[in-house]
Write a structure and sequence with these properties.
The protein is of the alpha/beta class. Helices cover 29% and strands 30% of the residues. A hairpin with a 3-residue loop joins β5 and β6.
Length: 294
């Protein structure tokens, strides 16, 4: 069977959101390219600009229905003038080709994410070795990178952690490698739960990590909640995730575009007090503290 290559032309403010939806729908790789040959001058240091019109291209495994994917995008973004195209690609090991471009990456002072078969980094490194398979999460996305850098700066040693929307398990495993226990990794996708379990086993943290679907989660309140998903689900989950957090505990919310930050903060306002958002490209990390009981 042939692979599916789906291309979506979207306005710049929504391009990242479109990419995230495609990743959550099972895309094996997503790239963002200029859709109109627009020149980008040298950016200000620390900024990550995008073109005004962006071509978001996603590779899906054989058997993916292009019509279904187009319908889901149109339903998710009914207000946008999306231009959606698809083509079939001759079979080859596209997943292997993508993995060949996945190289060791450092987040903060000593937290690394590396392919399973790569050479080791510096001797004192905390290393997450990863083969995400079909699950989302290698650290290349700004949202994931922001969370990894936060974990490097604030190692959750001895703390109970909930990673909601775990994908490949990268954040849950990083927390476990930094001393967290127990770590609850939750995702609505059974493939993500399976990938997390496999990756946790490879990284030697399977005994302290519980990966499951939301309906199977049985966990007391934890000291740290991480949710790297999308703004709308984050808002819907506000009561659930807030109650999952101990008074005085920390919550990390991301997968959020800058213009969505205030809406997400408002959803959690009854329970959580937020610090200033941390920005990267058009994405933000919201860090909050659960209010103590009266």
């Amino acid at each position: 069977m042939n692979w599916l290559n789906l291309s979506v032309i979207a306005p710049r403010p929504q391009a990242g959101d479109v990419a995230s939806v495609l990743e959550r729908e099972g895309a094996l790789a997503v790239t963002l390219l200029d859709a109109r040959d627009e020149l980008l001058v040298e950016p200000v240091p620390g900024s990550f600009p995008l073109w005004e019109s962006v071509r978001v291209t996603a590779l899906f495994s054989p058997g993916t229905d292009a019509t279904v994917m187009q319908q889901r995008l149109s339903e998710r973004f009914p207000e946008l003038p999306l231009v959606i195209q698809s083509e079939e690609l001759a079979d080859r090991d596209w997943t292997r080709a993508w993995r060949d471009d996945f190289h060791p990456m450092c987040f903060g002072a000593r937290l690394w994410v590396c392919p399973k078969d790569s050479a080791g980094p510096q001797p004192d490194a905390v290393v997450v070795r990863l083969d995400p398979g079909v699950a989302f999460g290698t650290g290349t996305h700004p949202s994931t990178a922001l969370c990894l850098e936060w974990l490097d700066r604030h190692p959750p040693a001895g703390k109970a952690v909930l990673d909601y929307g775990c994908g490949s398990g990268i954040l849950a495993i990083a927390a476990g490698k930094l001393g967290a226990a127990p770590v609850y990794a939750v995702d609505i996708d059974p493939q993500a739960v399976a990938a997390t379990r496999d990756n946790a086993r490879y990284n030697g943290v399977e005994h302290g990590l519980i990966a499951c679907l939301p309906g199977d989660l049985q966990a007391p309140p934890v000291s740290l909640v991480i949710a790297n998903i999308l703004a709308n689900p984050l808002c819907e989950l506000a009561p659930v995730l807030s109650v999952s957090l101990l008074p005085g505990g920390t919550i990390l919310l991301t997968g959020i575009l800058e213009h969505q930050a205030a809406t997400v903060q408002a959803a959690y306002a009854p329970w959580v007090e937020f610090a200033e958002p941390v920005r990267r490209a058009e994405w933000v990390l919201l860090t909050g503290t659960r209010r103590t009981a009266d």
